[in-house]
Write a structure and sequence with these properties.
Layout: H1 6-18, H2 21-28, H3 32-46, E1 51-54, E2 57-60, H4 62-85, E3 92-99, H5 100-107, H6 111-117, E4 121-128, E5 141-144, E6 153-168, H7 169-175, E7 189-191, H8 205-208, E8 216-217, H9 221-229, E9 234-238, H10 239-242, E10 248-266, H11 273-288
Parallel strand pairs: 3-4, 3-5, 7-8, 7-9
Antiparallel strand pairs: 1-2, 5-10, 6-9, 6-10
Helix pairs in contact: 1-2, 1-3, 1-4, 2-3
């Protein structure tokens, strides 16, 4: 293989992981033209096409996929050497993708603690309204709702969590309390926008009532929480979030569902100290308050 320039490889990895030249440029903090020039320079030096440029993104060729594996091994080596020289200072940017409820209600309030522990780490928290590709490294750490099955992804369970029915005291005073699941259809029900449910594990309304009909549809867990707090109706909320609000009341507590959070990452990040530090912090934070989840 021709001699490889690490700066060119770093640009190539960003393109391979994001699937777009523009996204890669933003992540690297350079302009689109620089990314294109570096990529062309790398392809010219190797005498191979690495990326098929499409209208809405890029796909790796076979040669590109082979080079990605080589580049990621080099990346691990570079990072591990750097940490060996300065093991007491963990630095870097770590992008964390998480469902909006867990990301905004659990992770975000704890970022100050993380900063105190590791002041050299810059966290990018991305609340997900869709599935995030770990294999393409759209995020360094991803909290998923099901265990990933890709061979290149490693995952560990964070916690099981419980969802139940909640409504505000004001709403229940006005509308009355349902005596059973059969009464739910006569109430205003708060839930997801059906065609924007990005994971099957979020499609749990029928587990509460086969006649569930969403009257107030909101495409985020945090939005649903706010609607229920405002008296919009009865909603399916995360227990660890809902029970922080004294104005909410559990409705039909015998009805509940359990789901799980998994913490996933690409196997190529095993030796990356900043990512390890953030992953360990998240696991520790969940364990400290595991009783709140279910």
């Amino acid at each position: 293989m021709a001699r490889l320039n690490w700066d060119d490889l770093r640009v190539f990895l960003a393109v391979a992981r994001s699937g777009q030249l523009l996204s890669a440029a933003k992540r690297l903090g350079v302009n689109h033209a620089t990314v294109s020039r570096r990529l062309q320079q790398l392809e010219s030096g190797l005498g191979q096409t690495l990326v098929h440029r499409r209208t809405h993104g890029c796909d790796l060729t076979d040669a590109g996929r082979q080079l990605q594996a080589v580049a990621e091994r080099m990346e691990r080596d570079v990072l591990s050497v750097g940490e060996g020289e300065a093991s007491d200072a963990i630095n870097g940017t770590v992008r964390v993708g998480a469902p909006d409820g867990f990301g905004l209600q659990f992770i975000a309030p704890r970022l100050g603690q993380l900063a105190e522990r590791h002041p050299g780490i810059r966290v990018e928290l991305v609340p997900m309204g869709r599935s995030v590709s770990i294999s393409r490294r759209e995020a360094d750490l991803v909290v998923t709702l099901a265990r990933p099955d890709q061979a290149s992804v490693i995952a560990r369970k964070l916690v099981d969590y419980e969802l139940g029915l909640y409504a505000s005291h004001d709403y229940l005073t006005r509308a009355g309390r349902p005596g059973s699941g059969d009464d739910l259809p006569v109430h205003r029900l708060v839930g997801y926008v059906d065609d924007l449910v990005y994971s099957d594990v979020l499609d749990y309304t029928r587990e509460f009532s086969p006649r569930w009909r969403t009257d107030v549809a909101i495409a985020s867990a945090v939005g649903q929480l706010e609607a229920v707090l405002g008296g919009a109706g009865i909603g399916i909320l995360h227990r660890y979030i809902a029970e922080e609000h004294a104005s909410l009341e559990r409705v039909l507590p015998a009805l509940e569902v359990t789901r799980s959070y998994w913490l996933a990452r690409h196997e190529s990040t095993r030796a990356m100290g900043a990512i390890n530090a953030v992953a360990d912090f998240l696991v520790e934070s969940v364990r400290e308050v595991a009783y709140r989840f279910g």
